[in-house]
Specification:
Number of strands of chain B: 11
Oligomer: heterodimer
Radius of gyration of chain B: 13 Å
Distance between the termini of chain A: 36 Å
Number of helices of chain A: 0
Helix content of chain A: under 10%
Shape of chain B: globular
Largest sheet of chain B: 6 strands, mixed
Strand content of chain B: over 45%
Number of strands of chain A: 11
Number of helices of chain B: 0
Order of helices and strands of chain B: EEEEEEEEEEE
Radius of gyration of chain A: 13 Å
Chain lengths: 112, 110
């Protein structure tokens, strides 16, 4: 099993550009999450999904959109990137609500 | 507001020198407390979930314990490969969200 994979691993964007981060999991997990990790801030939840076709806002959702068209995939979109979105983005999945979440390797995004 | 505070921020140990990391939390009804290990440039790796006060879990040299206000991650006879940042997170009842602490960076010198 590959577990949780993320594409791409690194990306540099100019302010105002858009991009989509892809997360895929092969563990048949219902729940999927997007986090960002910034120095001194810890991990913060952006959006999450409790099943195929569902999405919900987390702690810091502004400037991001998500979609979960297939159970195994969770997409994170930035419509108009801003320097404040420079961060490391992690996707995670879990089998049920209070189960441990399994994280992907991360995407390092820089917005100039 | 749910909060997690981890201490110390950084800890240096000699190989074989046992110690504990602390995670203090306030939450409106605990659903679960989670410990993760994160190596530089990688995603967090799930270690343990604790659900109720008094619960303990072990994995190799690590043992996690839980009270109503805090959790400890005990490291027995650590090795250099235990060097990493250890993250604690809590989930409140009725919430899908994990609230993470800022982590404790552990360095084990040979």
């Amino acid at each position: 099993n590959a577990g949780v994979t993320q594409t791409p691993k690194f990306r540099v964007l100019k302010t105002g550009q858009s991009m989509t981060l892809l997360c895929a999991q092969d563990m048949n997990h219902e729940y999927m999450y997007w986090y960002r990790q910034d120095p001194g801030m810890g991990l913060r939840l952006i959006h999450y999904s409790v099943g195929e076709g569902t999405t919900a806002k987390g702690e810091v959702p502004d400037g991001y959109n998500v979609s979960r068209l297939k159970k195994q995939n969770f997409l994170l979109g930035l419509e108009s990137a801003a320097p404040s979105q420079t961060s490391v983005y992690f996707c995670a999945s879990s089998y049920f609500q209070s189960a441990g979440q399994y994280f992907g390797p991360g995407t390092r995004l820089t917005v100039t | 507001e749910d909060q997690v505070t981890q201490s110390p921020e950084a800890l240096r140990l000699q190989e074989g020198e046992s110690s504990s990391l602390n995670c203090s939390y306030t939450v409106s009804g605990l659903r679960g407390l989670f410990w993760y290990r994160q190596d530089p440039g990688k995603g967090p790796e799930f270690l343990f979930t604790l659900y109720s006060a008094g619960e303990e879990k072990e994995k190799e040299r690590l043992k996690a314990t839980l009270t109503k206000k805090e959790s400890f991650l005990h490291i027995t006879a650590p090795k250099p490969e235990d060097s990493a940042t250890y993250l604690c997170a809590v989930q409140a009842r009725g919430s899908e969200k994990l609230v993470f602490g800022k982590g404790t960076k552990l360095t084990v010198n040979p």
